[in-house]
Amino acid sequence: xxxxxxxxxxxxxxxxxTDSLTPVATxxxxxxxxxxxxxxxxxxxxxxxHEPGRRLVAAKNVTVGEEFFQxxxxxxxxxxxxxxxxxxxxxxxxxxxxxxxxxxxxxxYLRGVDNAKFRRQVVPGDRLRLEVTLGAERxxxxxxxxxxxxxxxxxxxxxxxxxLKAAGQIxxxxxxxxxxxIGEGTVVGPNAMIGPHVRIGKHCQVGASAVIDxxxxxxxxxKIFPFASIGLMPQDLKYRGEETRVVIGRRNIFREFVTxxxxxxxxxxxxxxxDQNLFMAYVHVAHDCRIGNNTIFGNAATLxxxxxxxxxxxxxxxxxxxxxxxxxxxxxxGGYSVVTKDxxxxxxxxxxxxxxxxxxxxxxMRRGFTEETLSKLKRxxxxxxxxxxTTSRALRQIEEDDSLNCPEVQYLIEFVRSSxxxxxxxxxxxxxxxxxxxx
Length: 439
Hints:
Layout: H1 16-19, H2 28-34, E1 46-51, E2 55-61, H3 81-97, E3 106-118, E4 127-138, E5 141-150, E6 153-166, E7 169-170, E8 175-176, E9 181-182, E10 187-188, E11 193-194, E12 199-200, E13 205-206, E14 211-212, E15 215-218, E16 223-224, E17 229-232, E18 245-248, E19 253-254, E20 259-261, E21 270-273, E22 278-279, E23 284-285, E24 290-291, E25 296-297, E26 302-303, E27 308-309, E28 314-315, E29 320-321, E30 326-327, E31 332-333, E32 338-339, E33 347-351, E34 354-359, H4 361-366, H5 371-386, H6 391-400, H7 407-417, H8 430-438
Parallel strand pairs: 7-10, 8-11, 9-12, 10-13, 11-14, 12-15, 13-16, 14-17, 15-18, 16-19, 17-20, 18-21, 19-22, 20-23, 21-24, 22-25, 23-26, 24-27, 25-28, 26-29, 27-30, 28-31, 29-32, 31-33
Antiparallel strand pairs: 1-2, 2-4, 3-6, 4-5, 5-6, 33-34
């Protein structure tokens, strides 16, 4: 009997027109690994024609040594009709796997068969030509029409419904507690450690030697690179082992050696991270921090406990934010800065100790802010930074100026008024401003 994965281009009884076609180079063993079948259930021997995403022609050589012939039927061997449908389904799965944009590591499953027809018998020595055409798709489902032929004669045909399902993979060297919950399609690398109270969503990646522990929830599509540490106990001397948590949203990226600590009882017991944030290598997020969506943390950026970082903020490399501080929306913290008060939204805050360098115009333009909104924010910042008014009087002037009325300016006012630690309104020197502009 042929070993699985071995291609066979010819067989007795096959028509000359089929044999004249040139098989397409396809790695059958690799495809076998991606399908939920093993020998002797793999029913595709060769790929003959392939139009990616549209049509595929495969071949199945039917030999007398096939195991199913032993009982179907003794003395009159016939290929079961259900196996003809299975062969068409496998050919359709190959077509789905090989199309552009197909999910890596997915498995194909047959979900339905409609309009199946069987027109003649298939016996040893026949060569089945499997023609599959891809139809409508609505991920994860796809329709296909399959026709099995011997020569020019149709043997069987059917409309197929298939589903692609992402396959998870846990490396055997990983240490995953039996009660940990690992979502569909998640990949866990070698020597990673996942604790008993961890819940990881779908289609995540956990790199080699990463550690996830504590009462930790991680959303779908998150990537955790090697040696990252998430959910371990906080660096707080008052912590006594109580149940506190880390909750992380979807599609975040944690690069190498990032550390995220869970909350403390005194700080609410929760560290929260939103969606689509990027944490570059060696970033540290301490206990009870709240991080919004679409933020960027440069290499080795560090947050003290109880820090609040709002949406679209950027904290550059090697910068530190003091505990209980707040970083506003679209704020930009320059590299190597030390932030000891609340960093203003929309502004550039740079230095040790950090000073305010005015509106982050370039960053806001990249985020799609209109010229009108930028103009209003610039004028509001002139009241706060350039005028000799006190902060409270400057805020009143901004509110009384109807030409500055917009949601962004209103948020700026509320941010300053709600600050518990005070905001960074100290301007940089002219020379420092020039240096930042040159950079």
